[in-house]
Write a structure and sequence with these properties.
- The protein is an alpha/beta fold.
- It has 2 domains: 164 residues, D-Maltodextrin-Binding Protein, domain 2, CATH 3.40.190; 133 residues, Bacterial extracellular solute-binding protein, family 7 (D-Maltodextrin-Binding Protein, domain 2, 3-Layer(aba) Sandwich).
- It is built from 12 helices and 11 strands.
- A 6-stranded mixed sheet has the order 7-6-8-5-9-11.
- Helix 2 links the parallel strand 1 and strand 2.
- The radius of gyration is 22 Å and the shape is globular.
Length: 334
């Protein structure tokens, strides 16, 4: 009898040990520093929520600060190669992929991260984002708050940009820069913007206050034009084979906090941080901000209209995608 009790106790201990080690660990890559807003206040809490909902079947380990790959341009490949299971991806760094989502880069299209992110997920649910979008488990399809223009020299009218070297994080915004008579400069990722400005490689960049703070641009830019000159599309992608191999409970935990739920979490938090970052950055740095009146804003809208016309003409199903996103933004904004 004593032996049976010992055997039973041993079996229970083995069972408990197995249960304790049964959790699947997913590797989540972020190019941002661990204290930056998106990684600290959006991605990390999301990972914790998913793990808590998985009944012990999932752990999500964050790898911030480029631990698995430093460049934002590497993140998609990390997932494709299985180095990371999940990653935060900026599609503009991989031109030719996810191009349908570049509609969000069009000037005067996206009013806020919250509205834009909700509308972008709606586009995917409507089947309007296909191709590369279908190759991954999509946790989220989002956009930044609209980008203004951060520069060294003061910029007021579109003509002031003639001949300046300007950077943007995506091909559609680069096209807008070209339409303004400036020289579009691609291939400069967020972490290298401040250095590129200080070295004279670029005169400014399309960006928003959260990125100015995160990537320490406040130390080099002196002026900011507050116009919605296009948002930066973003994705949270997961290796599809990895997702397919998970248990139903683990999949359910991921699905619960993905899609529309992730868009809402991301957009609200992103917009709030941009407003707070603006106050912090302007308090710490002598940056002059110009908020154009209606007449001046119309000048910019007219000067940039060709970017929208060209995008529609050069994108398969472009007019339908543009019209659908316009409607989706109106729907979620009401």
């Amino acid at each position: 009898m004593k032996f049976k009790k010992l055997a039973l106790a041993g079996a229970m201990a083995i069972g408990l040990c197995s249960a304790a080690t049964a959790a699947e660990t997913l590797r989540f890559s972020s190019f941002e520093p661990p204290v930056a807003h998106v990684t600290k206040n959006i991605l990390t809490p999301w990972a914790e929520d998913v793990a808590a909902a998985s009944d012990g079947e999932l752990e999500i380990q964050m790898f911030p600060g480029g631990t698995l790959g430093r460049s934002p341009a590497q993140q998609l490949k990390l997932v494709e190669d299985g180095v990371a299971d999940i990653a935060w991806v900026i599609p503009g760094y991989t031109p030719g992929r996810f191009d349908q989502g570049s509609v969000s880069e069009l000037p005067f299209m996206i009013p806020s991260s919250a509205a834009g992110s909700a509308a972008m997920w709606s586009m995917y649910e409507q089947g309007l984002f296909t191709g590369d979008y279908d190759k991954f488990k999509l946790i989220g399809i989002m956009v930044s708050a609209p980008n203004g223009l951060a520069t060294i020299a003061p910029i007021r009218e579109p003509g002031d940009l003639n001949g300046l070297n300007l950077r943007a994080p995506g091909p559609t915004m680069l096209s807008a820069i070209d339409a303004l008579g400036a020289v579009p400069v691609g291939g400069i990722t967020g972490p290298t913007i401040a250095e590129s400005i200080s070295r004279g490689l670029i005169d400014g960049t399309f960006t928003q206050w959260g990125a100015i703070e995160t990537f320490r641009m406040g130390e080099v830019v002196k002026n900011y034009l507050a116009l919605p000159l296009g948002a930066t599309p973003m994705l949270i992608v997961m290796n599809k084979a990895k997702y397919d191999g998970l248990s139903d409970t683990a999949k359910a935990a991921l699905d619960k906090f993905s899609g529309a739920a992730f868009s809402e979490r991301f957009g609200k938090s992103f917009d709030a941080n941009v407003a707070e970052a603006r106050e912090r950055t302007r308090a710490a740095n002598p940056i002059a901000e110009l908020v154009p009146d209606e007449a001046l804003a119309r000048q910019w809208r007219d000067a940039l209209a060709v970017a929208t016309t060209d995008w529609i003409a050069n994108t398969e199903n472009g007019q339908a995608i543009y019209d659908a996103l316009t409607k989706s933004i109106a729907d979620v904004s009401n």
